[in-house]
Design goal:
Number of domains: 1
Largest sheet: 6 strands, parallel
Order of helices and strands: EHEHEHHEHEEH
Distance between the termini: 19 Å
Number of strands: 6
CATH topology: Rossmann fold
Number of helices: 6
Strand order of the largest sheet: 3-2-1-4-5-6
Structural class: alpha/beta
CATH class: Alpha Beta
Radius of gyration: 15 Å
Amino acid sequence: MSDRPIRGVFFDVGNTLIVEEPGKHLWEMAVTPVSGALEVLTTIRSHFRIGIISNTVGSGDKELTAVLERAGLLLLIDSLVTSRDFGVAKPDPGIYVEGARRLGVPLPETCMVGDRLDTDIVGALRVGIPAIWLRHQDAGLLPDIVPTHIIRSLDELPGWLAAASGSATTRSTDP
């Protein structure tokens, strides 16, 4: 992992920021934010740039933007990249590199928050950035995948980010 300060935070969408409804496309879902998502994004926004890296099948950047707007989260997001429109999915390193480019923050100064060990966490670890696993109650560990940090709710994230970044970090728009 990099010892550079964290300036950007990537989030997965399904079951990390938005409650996912199995078997439904984004535009078919009720679009309910995960508990604490709005408050946490609002809290960390003054210190970090916020990006989305999402594996999508039938939805791209445009559809995800509309869902984030319906959920009341769009104005808190600085950039996003979807696997459908970019053509590469997590855990491929390329989507993280593109996410950092769009966010305007060097990749080593970012971290990833997600609920899937096999995509969100593995991908972040492969590119050498901190991988924060939002571990839901029924989620089990996978062999050989060790997240940088585990949280049980998004409310735990601001404290970890403050500690990991020295808490004196200020929001930057400079790459």
